[in-house]
UniProtKB/TrEMBL annotation:
SUPFAM superfamilies xrefs: PLP-dependent transferases
Keyword Lyase (UniProt): yes
Source organism of the structure: Pendulispora brunnea
Cofactor: pyridoxal 5'-phosphate
Name this protein carries in UniProt: Aminotransferase class V-fold PLP-dependent enzyme
Length: 466
């Protein structure tokens, strides 16, 4: 597969393509003006409220506030606590607030604890590593395996790949999109270090039957990780608002850890997530120490070395500024918007919502390829996430969708999109399923595909003529 990388490299017609460090610097004002131009343009894409997920707050005043908090501590390395004791306060309080949100107060017999990582993948990697290490130390497991629903986030596959853990993938019930608990029961064995469930999963926004998984894991002393990366900072407020959200947190005795991203519905800056444990001992299994290093005694809690104090300060600032009341207010608007959008989808007999979703809903069609709907909606500026097996598209409702007029536009555009799809039943749709965006005209062709895709992201400046 050949891709014209020179065409892909962005902004090449407007700005010089840098290939070496400039000989002399430029003025701060000029650079900031250039950055502002790019950011302002790029913001227009999602400010319309037509973009699924990714911009969870979308409130420029909120972002400005977070950036001010970041600016005060962005230069600090939180690994060096002697010069930034504030990081100890921020980190400790973020963890305490998150533990409280997930009802860690219900925990008896163990000491709950947590850590802050760089994102959802960071939290998942640390969790899985902790279970591997804990399983080795406490259960003597040398060939660990883990069980996850087929719908679990690829970060778990990445963890299994990186840490040499056998991955057992549980099928889902296609009707509910929830994990087949009987399959999990049959496949747990003495080498299982952790079972995973999602609240909610990325694809369908549905919540796995965590209490049933808990019955399996508690009896066998196996870990149960709940992936609340996406829903963690939203679902607890939905529950308080009276939505039908099954309990998924530390109130369930088998839940041993939860990942919840501050950089999603926590409304913090990108680059932080929380990882919470029922038992401090599981977290402590990944502590790293090298006391004999010639560079001095070295210790770090997890995989990262230096981390930015700015991101932790901004996450703390987001949580404290909003408080329970603020999160509740945003959650109310998001759940109501999602319900209204789902009603628009349900009004078309050709469309079918998968499972029983809450804030994120996914839909398909048995009458036509749903990617025809996506094709049409893209022309209208909508950016959904594409799925496969079956083909489906999803909308993770965030605050930008709660603006006035967005639901009305969605309803109107969707009706026209369905009409368009019906007219194109026999044709091949233009769009397909790729997590995080689709480069034009690419089709999956084994290993070549990822190299071409990554080359566009990382190397395309090399192909711009000098
Ligand atoms: C986003 C997401 C993740 C991974 O988080 P990153 O922050 O992208 O690394 C994990 N699980 C779910 C359900 C998610 O939506």
């Amino acid at each position: 597969m050949k891709i014209d990388e020179s065409n892909f490299y962005p902004y090449q017609s407007r700005f010089p393509v840098l290939r070496r460090l400039p000989e002399t610097g430029r003025s701060r004002e000029e650079i900031l003006a250039e950055l502002r131009a790019l950011a302002t343009e790029e913001n227009t894409v999602w400010e319309t409220g037509k973009c699924s997920g990714t911009m969870y707050s979308g409130d420029h005043e909120h972002y400005h506030f977070l950036n001010q908090a970041f600016a005060l501590f962005g230069h600090e390395n939180v690994l060096q606590r002697d010069i930034c004791p504030s990081a100890t306060r921020f980190e400790g309080e973020i963890i305490a607030m998150a533990l409280d949100l997930f009802n860690a107060g219900a925990i008896q017999g163990t000491t709950p604890a947590g850590m802050i990582t760089t994102g959802g993948t960071g939290s998942i990697l640390h969790a899985i590593l902790a279970y591997r290490e804990y399983g080795r130390k406490n259960r003597g497991i040398v060939h660990p395996n883990m069980i996850q629903p087929e719908t679990a986030h690829p970060a778990f596959d990445k963890a299994a790949h990186l840490f040499g853990i056998e991955l057992r993938k549980a099928p889902i019930d296609p009707r509910t999109t929830l994990v087949d608990v009987d399959w999990v029961a049959k496949n747990i064995d003495d080498n299982t270090v952790v079972v995973v469930g999602s609240a909610g999963n990325y694809g369908y926004g549905t919540i796995d039957p965590i209490s049933r998984l808990s019955e399996l894991t508690v009896a066998r002393k196996v870990g149960l990780h709940v992936d609340g990366c996406l829903g963690g900072f939203l679902l607890p407020f939905g529950e308080r608002l009276g939505y039908d959200i099954p309990v998924f947190d530390f109130r369930i005795p088998g839940v041993t850890s939860i990942s919840a991203d501050t950089h999603k519905y926590g409304y913090a800056l990108k680059g932080t997530s929380t990882l919470l444990f029922r038992d401090k001992e599981i977290r402590n299994a990944i502590y790293f120490m090298m006391p004999e290093w010639s560079g001095g005694k070295y210790m770090s809690p997890g995989m990262e070395g230096s981390r930015s104090g700015g991101l932790i300060a901004a996450a703390w600032a987001a949580m404290v500024q909003l408080g329970r009341e603020g999160y509740m207010r945003h959650a109310k608007a998001i759940f109501e918007t999602s319900a209204a959008m789902q009603a628009a989808v349900r009004s078309h007999p050709e469309l079918r919502i998968l499972g029983k979703p809450t804030f994120l809903f996914s839909f398909t069609s048995d009458a036509f390829d749903i990617y025809h709907v996506n094709d049409f909606m893209r022309e209208r500026g909508w950016r959904f996430n594409g799925q496969q097996y079956p083909n489906a598209i999803h909308m993770a409702v965030t605050r930008p969708q709660t603006q006035p007029g967005v639901v009305e536009n969605f309803t109107k555009d969707l009706a026209e999109a369905v009409a368009y799809a019906k007219q194109h039943v026999g044709d091949a749709p233009r769009s397909g399923a790729i997590y995080g965006g689709i480069p034009g005209g690419m089709t999956p062709e084994a290993g070549e595909f990822i190299r071409a895709f990554m080359a566009q992201m990382l190397d395309s400046h090399q192909a711009v003529p000098e």
